[in-house]
Amino acid sequence: MLGDLSINAQPLGCHAPLQAGHPVITPRQVEAKASQTRRSEVTGSSACADDDDAEYGNVLALAPMRIGMAFFRVLALALTFAGAALPTSSWAQAFPSQRVTIVVPFGAGSVTDIMARILADETSKHWGQQVIVENRPGLAGTGAVAKAAADGYTLMLTSNGHTVAALVNKNLPFDPVKDFAGITRVSSAPLCLIVNPEVQAKSVKELLALAKAKPGTLNFSSAGLASTTFIAGALFRRAAGIDIMHVPFKSAPDAVTAVVRGDAQMYFVPINLSKEMAEAGKVRALAVATPQRLAELPDVPTFREAGLDFVYDSWFGLMTESGVPRDVVHKINRDVVAILQSPEVKTKFAAQFVLPRADTPEEFDRIIRDETAQLTEVFKDFTQ
Question: Do 252 and 235 lie in a common domain?
């Protein structure tokens, strides 16, 4: 007990030990005896001349020791509570100590799912713990992560469609920005603008001229409002300052087929599909939305090379619940970034026609915030 200041020690000098039931001595008596003792020292008399002096001497001698013991007990208790309150960096370094789940809000076999499984295999090896992928398509999966325990054992691999979730769904049960902590982008899927061969435009410049000459007559297809293909088309529309219509479809294959049939004039498609269809003469590839040309499409210019300052990053990223301790978030980030830089993962990603990406948690959080704000403005063009 903190209030128990008694100690089991022999008194100093000639003082006898204090006995149980010893009379209570008041602070005023202590001070009076201290003054007397100081006078005795001056005259050379003993501080233990009688029993009263012994009693008071014991109190004066033991008081510093009692106070010292009490101080150290209080200090130890305070340090115990402080240790419980401070961030546990040692806990973060030991993470994970149990199974980790990566939730994918898309179906099995999707690009997001394939990348999550690659990452799960590699992190399981690195951590020495089981890492599983759980497919929970739609808002249910994202919502489950938002409400998960804030311990870092529930992660989510999703696309940049996450940034428009609140724009296409009313009464969303979570906040796509505030309820999540970014860990890092994992990869980007380069997109290429394709057009139907019958469209009278063989370059971006000619396509823009055609769209401006006939506003509202050309259209672009997408896999829906929350898809990355819609985001790419909407941002292209704004960057080019053209009036083209949006035609949503239920899936990416439907959106591509629409361009091949001529039901839609243009579409932003992953490079593997654009390469195959362009070589088969089913579509015409006009430009890639990347900063540099791609080795897979060496003859297709970037939008910047074609005269339009437009770059679009169709990213996939790893997130977790916003309350996860920052030292745990940074531990996961360091481990995942190291894995993404390995030759094995780069080879596996290349087979999926995606490019590895890596950020700090703070950089990824900023990307999520900025893109959400930007797309809020873009969506007004399609919802007003």
Answer: yes
